[in-house]
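TASK: fixed-backbone design
INPUT:
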């Protein structure tokens, strides 16, 4: 079913009310809604190619690319559509169209990778780790598994994501244990070489040791973070891992 369009009224309702009406009520309200004659998917395909042929790779083109994705055109299909059209509309126009299509379908690619990573482990990825986002380079997710006797959290890092250098302080006991459950990542203590991590690896982090951990540059990574009970415990967040240092990892 075609979505009721209000873009014309929102942008030009007062300046050009008739144009706004024709855009919202006729083009999108009548033409796009004739799904018994041509599906939304096929109308998106025709529209994308028509705009590409004119070289109109502006905000309206992005809108229709997004609509095409929402109407069922896959990343593989849009690549084939633009490749085919390139021979008829021109190579420079195709390059411009591909640049924008890559951006529109990039989110789908990331979601596919996230779903694949989730399928590799029994623990949930959880919600975006917004509460600690300021201490991470990149996006991470947090799923509390136990908060009663011992704190256990599944921490998931997108490719390239890692936390800042930090220290688990404790007057007695304390520290942290990492249990790697999916993907590939790294752990490094201050003054030592990075340690590559894989599912099944366990890292014991004593209190007062400065360290960081996170995903490999090209791979999702998840580990359970187990809080070791102690007295007078606290976390100290330090500087980010330098980008040039991280890029040396593979």
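OUTPUT:
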């Amino acid at each position: 079913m075609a979505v009721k369009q209000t873009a014309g009224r929102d942008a030009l309702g007062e300046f050009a009310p008739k144009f706004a009406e024709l855009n919202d009520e006729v083009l999108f309200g009548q033409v796009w809604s004739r799904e018994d004659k041509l599906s939304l998917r096929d109308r998106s395909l025709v529209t994308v190619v028509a705009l590409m042929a004119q070289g109109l790779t502006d905000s309206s083109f992005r809108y229709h690319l997004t609509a095409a994705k929402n109407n069922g055109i896959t990343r593989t299909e849009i690549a084939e559509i633009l490749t085919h059209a390139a021979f008829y509309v021109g190579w420079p126009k195709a390059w411009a169209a591909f640049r924008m299509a890559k951006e529109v379908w990039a989110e789908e690619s990331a979601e596919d990778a996230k779903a694949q990573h989730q399928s590799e482990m029994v623990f949930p990825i959880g919600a975006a780790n917004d509460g600690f986002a300021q201490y991470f380079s990149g996006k991470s997710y947090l799923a509390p598994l136990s908060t009663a006797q011992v704190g256990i959290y599944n921490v998931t890092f997108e490719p390239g994501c890692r936390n800042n250098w930090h220290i688990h302080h404790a007057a007695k006991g304390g520290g942290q244990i990492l249990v790697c459950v999916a993907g590939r990542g790294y752990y490094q203590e201050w003054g030592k070489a990075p340690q590559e991590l894989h599912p099944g690896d366990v890292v014991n982090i004593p209190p007062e040791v400065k360290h960081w951990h996170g995903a490999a540059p090209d791979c999702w990574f998840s580990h359970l973070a187990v809080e070791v009970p102690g007295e007078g415990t606290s976390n100290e967040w330090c500087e980010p891992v330098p980008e040039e240092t991280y890029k040396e990892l593979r």
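COMMENT: The radius of gyration is 25 Å.
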